[in-house]
């Protein structure tokens, strides 16, 4: 499905001439018959087909759009849990112990684990599988590692699309494990039904700073490595911070759970806390509302992305950009004013 | 958009030394590849399962235990049965020249790398397997 190049499809107000519409390159890697073959094998529950379709979605372009279109009606059945926190906080390990709990309940699990791409080489080491010992040798668990490839959020939009594939594949629970994140990772709330924020005692002094940002998106807070010194104090601090919160959006108070990976009971406690949030969402259609908000956000991003992509394919925009940049480089125009002028001159192309 | 070359680095069997595997993982990352590392003590079944789920372009195993004549054919066979017939397999580690000669004759075993192999050579070899997929 080729995005409509809206922003360049219009009339230039200055000259009155029509701006040419550039066609968006068709980016297909597979013959349509092969794609349909994989889709039907996917519908039949074949793991290899799920894996191939994940790759198709990773590559993007027209094939990805075909796959995401085809599977969309089958999404929404899985319960999605995002796990986020600083690097080394224990996200993979908690995903692993949660997997064991869910498998014990007879639920199937899909995991998307994202790790950072080097901005210098484009390469990445994806090491989350090392911790996921409960995942291997079990057909009820499907783990896919993903490199961030330049995405700056802890969970890229692509991670959510891969989660869609695992959801449509029929996994009961989909865990999304983010990269290590700092304090201002708030977009993650659009990626899952329940967001687990993992903190460790070492982060104690930073808790003040975390009052806004990451903690605000937490539906469940895990104080991991709880056997270490300072864990009790951190849990107390966190509990008092969330107790102070009156956000007016509901009455959910994120539970603070002490976790320690060797301790099976703590994994059960974490799963129970996630379940209590799930139960909360089941009241008054809260889950439907939350998912609708996330879908709206995703659609907004997709529209922006296709606008951006097609805008930069416009020779007119590029020509104007180069012309106006000449004035910026010469020091006669500030970049702020230049951006405004450029946007104004293009605005005629946008439907009001 | 094509994705970078994606490689699974795996440590089959009982040997607990993954220094070499980690050195290779870092070198391939620095060459612009995406490297999935499995960790230690993987059975051939676990390795092939990971390769299927990750949809890698290449499986690279590191074996220092001496069990290469058993493990490599076994992994290759499971890959073929699991729908990964077209995915190449390479191995590194302490593998005597005579054994390497035998293993290299197995269909789908693209290369065997002994001690002293430079990371530069390993990278060049892998890039050579994917002429249309050179990292940026």
Helix content of chain A: 40-55%
Q: Largest sheet of chain B, described in full?
A: 5 strands, parallel
Number of helices of chain A: 11
- Which blocks of ≥5 consecutive residues of chain B have pLDDT under 50? none
Unreliable segments of 5+ consecutive residues of chain A: 1-24
Name the average pLDDT of chain B: 92
The shape of chain B, in one word, is: globular
The total beta strand count of chain B reads 5
End-to-end separation of chain A = 24 Å
Shape of chain A: globular
- Class by SSE composition of chain A: alpha/beta
| Beta-strand fraction estimate of chain A | 5-15%
Structural class assignment of chain B: alpha/beta
Alpha-carbon Rg of chain A, integer: 23 Å
Strands side by side in the biggest sheet of chain B: 2-1-3-4-5
Structure commentary:
The complex is a heterodimer of chains A (352) and B (136). Chain A is globular and about 65 Å long. By secondary structure, chain A is α/β, with parallel strands linked by helices. In chain A, strands 4-2-5-1-6-7-8 form a 7-stranded parallel β-sheet, sandwiched between helices. Chain A has helices at 32-43, 47-59, 61-71, 91-104, 157-168, 207-210, 231-243, 264-282, 286-312, 315-329, 335-347, and strands spanning 79-85, 109-115, 124-126, 141-147, 173-180, 194-199, 220-223, 256-258. The two termini of chain A are 24 Å apart. Chain B has helices spanning 19-30, 44-54, 68-81, 97-104, 119-129, and strands at 6-10, 34-37, 58-63, 88-93, 109-113. Chain B starts with 5 loop residues before the first strand and ends in a 7-residue tail after the last helix. The A-B interface holds A 27, 29, 47-48, 51-52, 54-55, 58-61, 117-118, 121-127, 129-131, 133, 136-137, 142-145, 147, 149 and B 1-4, 25-26, 28-39, 42-43, 45-46, 49-50, 52-55, 82-83, 135-136. Strand 3 of chain A pairs parallel with strand 2 of chain B.
């Amino acid at each position: 499905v080729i995005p409509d190049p809206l922003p360049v499809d219009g009339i230039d107000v200055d000259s009155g001439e029509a701006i040419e519409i550039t066609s968006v390159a068709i980016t297909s890697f597979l013959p349509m018959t092969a794609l349909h073959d994989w889709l039907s094998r996917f519908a039949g529950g074949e793991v290899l087909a799920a894996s191939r379709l994940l790759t198709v979605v990773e590559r993007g372009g027209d094939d990805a759009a075909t796959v995401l279109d085809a599977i969309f009606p089958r999404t929404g059945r899985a319960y999605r849990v995002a796990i986020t926190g600083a690097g080394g906080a224990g996200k993979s390990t908690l995903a692993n112990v949660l997997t064991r709990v869910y498998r014990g309940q007879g639920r199937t699990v899909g995991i998307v684990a994202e790790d950072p791409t080097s901005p210098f080489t484009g390469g990445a080491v994806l090491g989350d599988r090392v911790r996921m010992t409960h995942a291997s040798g079990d057909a009820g668990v499907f783990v896919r590692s993903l490199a961030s490839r330049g995405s700056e959020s802890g969970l890229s939009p692509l991670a959510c699309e891969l989660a869609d594939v695992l959801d449509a594949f029929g996994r009961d629970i989909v865990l999304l494990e983010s990269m290590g994140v700092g304090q201002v990772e708030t977009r993650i709330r659009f990626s899952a039904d329940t967001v687990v924020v993992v903190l460790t005692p070492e982060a104690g002094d930073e808790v003040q700073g975390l009052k806004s940002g990451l903690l605000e998106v937490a539906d469940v807070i895990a104080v991991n490595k709880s056997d270490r010194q300072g864990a009790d104090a951190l849990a107390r601090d966190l509990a008092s911070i969330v107790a102070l919160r009156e956000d007016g959006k509901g009455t959910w108070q994120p539970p603070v759970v002490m976790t320690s990976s060797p301790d099976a009971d703590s994994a059960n406690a974490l799963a129970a806390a996630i379940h209590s949030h799930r139960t909360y969402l089941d009241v008054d259609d809260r889950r439907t509302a939350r998912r609708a908000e996330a879908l709206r956000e995703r659609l907004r991003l997709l529209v922006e992305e296709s606008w951006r992509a097609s805008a930069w394919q416009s020779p007119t925009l590029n020509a104007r950009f180069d012309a106006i940049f000449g004035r910026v480089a010469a020091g006669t125009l500030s970049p702020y004013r230049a951006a405004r002028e450029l946007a104004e001159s293009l605005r005629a192309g946008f439907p009001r | 958009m094509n994705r970078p070359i994606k490689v699974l680095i795996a440590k089959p069997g009982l040997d607990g030394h993954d220094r070499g595997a980690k050195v290779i993982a870092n070198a391939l990352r620095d060459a612009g590849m995406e490297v999935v590392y499995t960790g230690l003590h993987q059975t051939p079944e676990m390795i092939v399962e990971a390769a299927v789920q990750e949809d890698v372009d290449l499986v690279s195993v590191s074996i220092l235990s001496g069990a290469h004549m058993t493990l490599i054919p076994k992994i290759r066979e499971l890959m073929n049965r699991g729908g990964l017939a077209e995915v190449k397999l390479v191995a590194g580690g302490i593998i005597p020249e005579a054994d390497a000669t035998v293993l290299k004759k197995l269909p789908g075993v693209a290369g065997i790398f002994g001690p002293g192999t430079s990371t530069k050579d390993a990278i060049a070899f892998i890039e050579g397997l994917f002429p249309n997929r050179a990292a940026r």
